[in-house]
């Protein structure tokens, strides 16, 4: 199966570079391009991409608003990876909260970009623990986070589910969590599902971000 990718970036040169990298792979194909977030809904409806590589900063409609719109209005929406120049970009944090499945830096090596696209199609999320911790710490320090919603979290997770969430926050895969906790990958998958359901999180990234925001996990 060929994985269809939509490129969204207001810089034509960036799109050209990504297209060259992606189209060189036998299982990947760039199905369309857009220069602004405002073009994304129409492109998604017409092209039905599997993955969107979405710039976060664009002139008319930024990647945050475009991500939120797609995930809220499109049945079985594509996976969305936001692309940014700086890992501490506050736009990245907001895009992840909106439901993006991870982020990449524009200076990321080609092989890591390809790996990221394949990962999100397989249902994984791109968590970069150090970057997420830093973004969460900055957000809380600026007054954007805090204990809001904390009561909804504390006491709802079992001890084992809390262990799983903390390992998720370190960027561990299900297999790595299973090895750490001496349980089966299927058991971990069940715990992850329970964590997401109890925290009303769309995916692992949102669960980790909300855990930091409510103080369930304290950035170190």
Give short descriptive properties of this protein.
220 residues; Response regulator; 11 helices; 5-stranded parallel β-sheet; globular; DNA-binding; alpha/beta
What is this entry, summarized?
The protein has 220 residues and is an alpha/beta fold. It has eleven helices and five strands.
Describe this structure in words.
With 220 residues, this protein is α/β, with parallel strands linked by helices. Helices cover 51% and strands 12% of the residues. It is built from 11 helices and 5 strands, in the order βαβαβαβαβααααααα. It has a 5-stranded parallel beta sheet, with helices on both faces. Helix 4 (90-98) packs across helix 11, helix 8 packs across helix 10 (185-199) and helix 8 packs across helix 11.
Topology, please?
Blueprint: E1 3-8, H1 12-23, E2 28-34, H2 40-47, E3 51-55, H3 63-73, E4 79-84, H4 90-98, E5 103-105, H5 110-121, H6 129-141, H7 150-153, H8 159-169, H9 174-181, H10 185-199, H11 204-213
Helix pairs in contact: 3-4, 4-11, 8-10, 8-11, 9-10
Keywords: DNA-binding, Phosphoprotein, Transcription, Transcription regulation
Protein name: Response regulator
Modified residues (4-aspartylphosphate): 55
Q: Kindly, what is the distance between the CA atoms of the first and last residues, rounded to a whole number of angstroms?
A: 42 Å
Indicate the mean pLDDT.
85
Outline: globular
Structural class, please?
Answer: alpha/beta
Number of helical runs? 11
Which stretches are low in confidence, meaning pLDDT under 50 for 5 or more residues running?
none
The number of E-state strands comes to 5
Helix percent reads: 40-55%
Q: Biggest sheet: strands side by side, in what order?
A: 2-1-3-4-5
Compressed to H and E, one letter per element, the order equals EHEHEHEHEHHHHHHH
């Amino acid at each position: 199966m060929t994985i269809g990718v939509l490129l969204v970036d207001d810089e034509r040169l960036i799109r050209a570079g990504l297209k060259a990298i992606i189209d060189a792979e036998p299982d990947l194909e760039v199905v369309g391009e857009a220069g602004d977030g405002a073009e994304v809904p129409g492109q998604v409806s017409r092209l039905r991409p599997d993955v969107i590589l979405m710039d976060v900063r664009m002139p008319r409609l930024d990647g945050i608003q475009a991500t939120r719109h797609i995930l809220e209005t499109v049945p079985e929406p594509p996976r969305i990876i936001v692309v940014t120049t700086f890992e501490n970009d506050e736009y990245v944090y907001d895009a992840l909260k909106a439901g993006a499945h991870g982020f990449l830096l524009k200076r990321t090596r080609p092989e890591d970009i390809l790996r990221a696209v394949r990962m999100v199609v397989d249902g994984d999320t791109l968590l970069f623990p150090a970057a997420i911790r830093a973004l969460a710490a900055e957000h809380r320090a600026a007054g954007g986070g805090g204990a809001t919603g904390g009561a909804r979290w504390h006491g709802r997770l079992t001890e084992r589910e809390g262990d799983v969430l903390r390992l998720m926050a370190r960027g561990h895969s299900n297999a790595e969590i299973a090895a750490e906790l001496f349980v089966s990958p299927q058991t971990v998958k069940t715990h992850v599902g329970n964590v997401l359901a109890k925290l009303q999180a769309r995916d692992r990234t949102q669960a980790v971000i909300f855990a930091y925001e409510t103080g369930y996990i304290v950035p170190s």
